[in-house]
Amino acid sequence: SPPVEVSLAAHDGQALAWIYRNGRVLSRYDGPGGEVTLVARLDAQALGRFERQFPSARVSAAVD
């Protein structure tokens, strides 16, 4: 599965833990404004579940 970039608030620990549990995190950047950006691999089914469960997270295709 192609990597995706996921941006979410640092205080959204549930979403963060979900990605680490259900995907493979390739990189993480903690921004100065309290936002966390992850590049991760999730299969299509897991990605769909994540987007339904955490609609406030921003998900986009990862850029090399």
UniProtKB/TrEMBL annotation:
Signal peptide: none annotated. It comes from the Bacteria. Transmembrane segments: none annotated. PROSITE patterns: GUANYLATE_CYCLASE_2 (PS50125). Residues 1-43 form the Guanylate cyclase domain. InterPro entries: A/G_cyclase (IPR001054). GO terms for biological process: cyclic nucleotide biosynthetic process; intracellular signal transduction. It comes from Caulobacter vibrioides. This is Guanylate cyclase domain-containing protein.
